[in-house]
């Protein structure tokens, strides 16, 4: 029986955050290991041989996994405490760190001088829209902190969707209380503080 394991946390540096491909790859890998394969991860917790093999079980189709295949509550709690919540916390930590990087000044921005030069030229530009209606169009370069802020904002929205979906399946299969994923994650965090 294979069990999902948490994706190791990357070394958090501004360079990690500004490498948007690397940031997205880490988040994608972490999500695919735990959240995207949540059904398989939960099925791996099921121990079918607890009561012994029943030959009549192959004569009918099993459609309701909750009634016919209960998952041990201890195994569910162990999965949530040791795999699911730590994975979510790691991703939250990465996104929070990168959000901090995105809101900090960036003196090492390689395009800073180019953007400042373009901005100065654009202030001096005289536009006659009668001659060329498209000449007023200008697309300023986006600072890499702005680009990172957009990535973090989008990834946080993705996290909300994925966690809601994952928690719905976990709640259903593990007979978890009806608390939302935010409340369950906060309770786990509090237990970790003790």
From TrEMBL:
Residues 61-71 have a biased composition (Basic and acidic residues). GO terms for cellular component: mitochondrial intermembrane space. Residues 48-71 are annotated as: Disordered. PANTHER family: COILED-COIL DOMAIN-CONTAINING PROTEIN 58, PROTEIN MIX23. Belongs to the MIX23 family. This is Putative caffeine-induced death protein Cid2.
């Amino acid at each position: 029986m294979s069990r999902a394991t948490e994706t190791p946390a990357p070394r958090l540096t501004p360079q990690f955050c500004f490498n948007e491909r690397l940031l997205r790859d880490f988040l994608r890998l972490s999500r695919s290991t735990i959240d995207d394969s949540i059904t398989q991860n939960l099925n791996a917790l099921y121990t079918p041989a607890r009561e012994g093999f029943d030959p009549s079980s192959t004569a009918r189709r099993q459609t309701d996994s909750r009634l016919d295949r209960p998952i041990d509550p201890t195994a569910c709690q162990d999965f949530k405490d040791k795999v699911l919540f730590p994975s979510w916390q790691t991703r939250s930590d990465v996104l929070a760190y990168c959000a901090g990087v995105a809101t900090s000044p960036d003196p090492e921005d390689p395009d800073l001088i180019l953007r400042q030069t373009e901005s100065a030229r654009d202030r001096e530009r005289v536009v006659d829209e009668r001659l060329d209606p498209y000449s007023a169009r200008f697309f300023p370069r986006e600072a890499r902190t702005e680009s990172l802020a957009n990535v973090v904002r989008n990834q946080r929205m993705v996290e909300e969707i994925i966690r809601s979906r994952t928690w719905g399946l976990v709640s259903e299969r593990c007979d978890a209380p009806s608390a939302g994923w935010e409340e369950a994650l906060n309770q786990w965090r509090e237990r970790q503080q003790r």
